[in-house]
Design goal:
alpha+beta; 3-stranded antiparallel β-sheet; 3 strands; elongated
């Protein structure tokens, strides 16, 4: 995927947005015909929403989660 600046005067591809697109997201080949056009506001909103989904987790948090699950497993097995 590739984000490039658009010099064309296309509308933003987000429904309900009437702004002029300044950016194209494409697969890197023929971006003018096969890309999605976004205005700066919509692109920023997409970025912020994706950041909510793909925020990396701290290794320390993963380690703590693994330790807690191992302790719980020991208690479950020990109680039998």
């Amino acid at each position: 995927m590739k984000i490039t600046h658009s010099f064309l005067k296309n509308k933003c591809d987000i429904g309900g947005c009437a702004n002029t697109a300044e950016y194209i997201i494409s697969n890197g080949e023929d971006s003018k015909r096969h890309g999605l056009y976004f205005c700066p506001e919509c692109l920023k909103t997409i970025y912020l929403e994706l950041a909510k989904l793909y925020t990396p987790k701290s290794p320390k948090n993963k380690l703590n989660k693994n330790i807690k699950s191992e302790i719980l497993e020991i208690f479950k097995n020990g109680a039998k």
